[in-house]
Amino acid sequence: MTDRPPFAAVVLAGGKSARLGGQHKPQLEVGGRTMLAAVLAAVEHAAPRVVVGPPQPVPDGVLLVREQPPRGGPVPALRAGLAAVDAEVVAVLAADLPFLTADLVDALATELVGRGSSDGVLVVDGAGRDQYLLGVWRTATLRAAVGAVHGPTSMRALLTPLAVHRHRPTPVAGRPVPWTDCDTPAELARARAAAPRPAD
Asked: How far, in Å, CA of 11 to CA of 35, rounded?
């Protein structure tokens, strides 16, 4: 999409996953590349691209920051990421979305800009669940919401009061859905089985 509005990207790439044997989830491979690499490729045109999490490999030009306190959860991670963003629009994404596409992120950003009254646009999955770490937001509104938080807060509690538009992507036959995440060994195995084979 060549008419995409400018936007930044904050990718939450937290610590080890107990359900995956304590491995660092964003660095696990699906389809021949890490899940973090897949997410960063989907926001290749974002500026800046900010990864929040512990020290880990990131491409040149990607800023790596750490939330305070470390492993404090997604809201402190979002706060740390937003501190590095100066764009008016920001994509907020989990790092374990191996089938995320640039077309979807661009569509979310374009839809947000076209909806002057919305604070954000997030994806709703096939089961009707809001995907709080798969959306695009107005940076100033999101920063104000995070700044008003005191104490532990979930992403659901943070984002629910905002004016949110829900985007329901149409699944493409034969392709894994873009909201596929990998929280358990079974989900990771299914994602690996569904991933296209990497080119030789």
From this structure: 11
pLDDT for residue 68: 86
Q: Which CATH number applies to 8-194?
A: 3.90.550.10
- Whether residue 20 contacts residue 28, with contact meaning beta carbons closer than 8 Å, is answered with yes
Residue type, 136: V
| 59 membership: H or E segment, kind and range | none
- Calculate the CA 20 to chain-centre distance: 19
Q: Which segments in the chain show pLDDT lower than 50? A: 1, 200
Quote the pLDDT of residue 16: 56
Q: 3-class DSSP state for residue 81?
A: helix
Instruction: Say if residue 69 is preceded by a cis peptide, omega within 30 of 0.
Output: yes
Q: Is the pTM of this model over 0.85?
A: yes
Give yes or no for a contact between 57 and 12, defined as CB atoms under 8 angstroms apart: no
Distance CA 176, CA 191 (A): 8
Q: How far apart are CA 51 and CA 105, in angstroms?
A: 16
